[in-house]
Design brief:
230 residues; Cathepsin B, Chain A; three-stranded antiparallel beta sheet; two-stranded parallel sheet; cysteine-type deubiquitinase activity; cytoplasm; USP_CS; hydrolase; CYLD hydrolase
Length: 230
């Protein structure tokens, strides 16, 4: 018997279900990197729901079932996921990966995403990046790297992405009209140092200037630009 599936939470429903005590994904044993990633990917958007249902070529149906029935559906239905459910997923990922510490150690979210998307589910990379005219690189998410900039006190995501791409001489390679999903990891914060005290979410992201060879307007005459001034 197929279990009922629940759509992502939107607008007033998201506020009603997700706000308050005992909401979200319960943390346990350094699970924060995975809890935050799963909440961001599934609570209020369906863009990656194919991960929950499609039989990808390398798909591990057991891991897919745990992700769908023990984490995503409870999160969307009641707004709360128990730590034991996430631990069940972590145990399965430990078995599938080459790392024995997924159940107890803190990881980089990118390491988790690469494991579950590539090795466990067999999903095609979501992004193609090119740096300085070099060979294209495929990846599942983009982590913002940048030096401290004094003029950015409380930046928004748009500013951080643009400056990070600029400092790394990166461009998005246009595989389709736009990337199907642009997963962005904010600058890492440690206990001793935080680059920014707050980051304002950009509800929309303009990637026009990030695309490789995309037609753009000249800032002086308004015609199609032929040169780019960094």
């Amino acid at each position: 018997q197929a279990l009922e599936s629940f759509p992502p939470l939107r607008n007033e429903a998201a506020v009603r279900v997700l706000r308050g005590r005992m909401r979200g994904i319960q943390g346990h044993c350094n699970s924060c990197y995975m809890d935050a990633a799963l909440f961001s990917l599934f609570s209020c958007t369906s863009v990656l729901d194919s991960m929950l249902f499609m039989p990808f070529p390398l798909c591990d149906r057991n891991v897919q079932g745990i992700l769908r029935d023990e984490i995503v559906n409870p999160l969307r239905r009641t707004g709360f996921v128990r730590a034991s459910s996430v631990m069940h997923l972590r145990e399965q990922l430990t078995d599938k990966g080459q790392c024995s510490s997924f159940t107890n150690a803190e990881k980089d979210p990118e390491e988790f995403l690469n494991l579950i998307m590539q090795q466990v589910l067999g999903i095609e990379p979501l992004l193609k990046l090119q740096s300085g005219g070099q060979k294209e690189q495929e990846c599942y998410c983009y982590q913002i790297f940048m030096d401290k900039q004094e003029d950015l006190v409380v930046p928004d995501v748009q500013q951080l992405v643009e400056r990070s791409f600029l400092s790394s001489d990166l461009k998005l390679v246009e595989a389709s009209p736009i990337p199907s999903c642009f997963i962005i990891q904010m600058p890492r914060f440690g206990k001793e140092y935080k680059m920014f005290s707050k980051i304002i979410p950009s509800l929309e992201l303009d990637i026009t200037d990030l695309l490789l060879d995309s037609p753009r307007e000249c800032c002086l005459c308004g015609d199609v630009a032929t040169l780019e001034c960094l």
